[in-house]
Please model this.
Amino acid sequence: MRWNRPAAIALRHFYLMRGSPARILPLFAWVAVDIVLWGFITRYLNSVSAAGFDFVPVMLGAVLFWDFFTRVMHGVTTAFFEDVWSRNFLNLFATPLAVSEYVAGLVVSSVVTSALGLVVMVLLASAAFGLSFFAYGAMLVPFLLVLLLFGIALGIVGCALVLRFGPASEWLIWPVPALLSPFAGVFYPVSTLPAWMQGAARLLPPSYVFEGMRRVVAGGTVSGLALAWGAVLALVYVVLAGWVYARVHRHAVRTGLLARYSAETVS
Amino acid sequence: MPPVLSVSRLSKRYGETLAVDGVSFDVADREIVGLLGPNGAGKTTTINMILGVLEPTAGEIRIEGIRLAEERSRALERTNFAAVYAPLPGNLTVRQNLRFFGLLYGVPRLDARIDELLEQFDLARFRDVKCGFLSSGEQTRASLAKAMLNRPRLLLLDEPTASLDPSVARDVRARLREFVGRGDGAVLWTSHNMYEVEEVCDRVLFLSRGRILLEGDPRKLPGDHGKETLEELFVTLAREPLALWRERA
Model:
């Protein structure tokens, strides 16, 4: 891999962000709205619930973690959609850029923009609602890492689906995090779910993060094995996602889809 | 020394349709070769295969002896292209686009190279203008500047002057002649403007229904086939490809 090529993809994204408030605003605006909304909900819940239980690190923390995951996934797909929207595939893939370098560039763009969103969320949640990241202790790092990896994996699969089924299928990609959230146990323990949903939850790395997060806040210890399993699952999904994207890209090159993609975008 | 481009028995099949049917040709250093043919003849399909964005069903492409199928990145480092249907992203400025593609091609001393190309293609005053705001002629010049970024050994141009007024088109032709004259590389060019082809190309390949029907010097070919002009020959071949075979028989 030549790192100048993924760097070019990330630089292109930086140029687009810099010159466009419409791209910068969603990085912060929606997560800020979420934090404010859930901040007040948790404040209300604290006032009406039995004394002693603090909803802030459980509910608001969950929102913050889930929004981070969503931003990572959307960060990867948005960087890809920029090439769809600007009909740039022909120019892009006629260069020496390898598929792995392209995907690496999308991931770097996403990590940078998601980190910015995370900083804003943390500042807002701590300043306005007293959420402290220290509440999660050293487990914060593996929690974020698992969510980051799974967000990257889903983002890459989202790109593959849009490449395979055309620009209009972008609308199927945006709501994916919302579709997964009931299974991931973001706001409630996985044991609350019916058996078949628990089965699905066990396949989702974020479910291990949210189970662990609730345990830390309750003063218990996180099962290192469970979290490690979540991390392994997330890594496996990243590898699988890369494989799926490579297969779809190859199919697009073989069938002429890549060369014709611009025409479809126009239509 | 291998030819800049060597295409051998290249085919592309889409289901029952054979878009390119066993095409073979070379492009030598300092040569401008025109790829001519009616719409749907297989010109763009051939160019897309050489650009590595379309996989051939059969055959081989070598760029300076490097097999495209096996060493894609290494082969494509030596090429670049401009096409009327592939403008630079309109949401980036001219300079940002050149920087972006310059990094992808690994151009050394990129800033200096960009400045040089902005001057050369008369784009200096548009350096910070988004490409989407440029006129079609200016966009074409920006695409050509991108195509020259990495000093390609093989330049692929698919109807590069289609949206240009005659004066700018003449200027573009002159720059390409200059590029080849300097010994920088070779050009494969498609165009429907036969006047332009006669002026620029050293050799032309007539493609019809995915096959090369005719090959030769564009200034001599019409006479050799009893036609007054290259356009007349083009029209005859486009309407009646079999006429050539009858004539040969």
Q: What stands out?
A: The mean pLDDT of chain B is 91. DSSP finds ten helices and ten strands in chain B. Chain B touches chain A at residues 12, 14, 45, 48, 51-55, 72-74, 76-77, 79-81, 83, 85-93, 96, 99-101, 103-106, 130, 146 (CB under 8 Å). The longest strand of chain B covers residues 17-27.
